[in-house]
């Protein structure tokens, strides 16, 4: 399965949430990064079909290279705001989604148990959803998206509310299952993308400003990131951007990016460095 977006435009009133957006998704794990209002959630909702688009096209291509309409159960989706039936038990909730996805009745119990085990909720089958913590509800949302082993998985801020252990569990799940299907993850947690994704798309104001592999994005900043003490920074005449300020050995230190080669010791570049640099630019 492939997803092809070509010159997609989505408006809310006069505001362009997506502006002439073209992206091609194939098997692999994609990270969508951007600040609030960048268009990440709108992008996902357009793919899923929740929103209609004003211009352009979104097409699905099957393994034979033919355009097709995704069938029931082709897409597993976790929205940013996950509405649930609080008086249902975890098992009944999962059964409801199994029915929606038209999973064969004789396979539902096994499928449900498998998905709940992946997110560490298999011991909560009979628990009412209203008794779950916020993190557990988020994990339940991940589990329902995984039901039926869909060819396309779309997660909007999946690790929000999860502790470090559960974030690691989510990354392991996606690393294991994400190579033979399309996985699209929208998030503001940059470090999750760096450890997980094959490709990253950075958005701002509804525009795609970069799309590339992690290595290529990080390598674009090589030899341009430095750690500079506050007093040294005040004496500099070169152009630079402050990425982060922190204390080191009791002294304030600036992590900076400069287009010029400086005499300071170079720092290893991270995706967060490049992300900050791109979102600070004017589009």
What does this structure look like?
- The chain is of the alpha/beta class and 283 residues long.
- Helices cover 31% and strands 30% of the residues.
- The protein has helices at 40-48, 90-100, 105-118, 134-146, 164-177, 190-196, 214-219, 230-234, 271-279; strands at residues 2-12, 15-25, 28-33, 55-61, 67-68, 75-78, 152-156, 182-187, 199-204, 207-213, 225-229, 241-248, 251-257.
- Strands 6-7-8-3-9-10 form a six-stranded mixed beta sheet, sandwiched between helices. The protein has a four-stranded antiparallel beta sheet with strand order 2-1-4-5, with helices on one face. A three-stranded antiparallel beta sheet has the order 11-13-12.
- α2 (90-100) packs across α3 (105-118) and α3 packs across α4 (134-146).
- The longest helix has 14 residues, at 105-118.
- It is globular and about 70 Å long.
- It starts with a strand and ends with a helix.
Summarize the structure.
The protein is an alpha/beta fold.
Number of helices: 9
Could you tell me the number of beta strands?
A: 13
Order of helices and strands: EEEHEEEHHHEHEHEEHEHEEH
Order of strands across the main sheet: 6-7-8-3-9-10
Give the C-alpha Rg.
Answer: 21 Å
Distance between the termini: 32 Å
Residue share in β-strands: 25-35%
Helix content: 25-40%
> What structural category arises from helix and sheet content?
alpha/beta
Could you describe the largest sheet, including whether it forms a barrel?
A: 6 strands, mixed
- The stretches of 5 or more residues where confidence is low (pLDDT under 50) are none
C-alpha geometry = globular
Mean pLDDT, all residues: 92
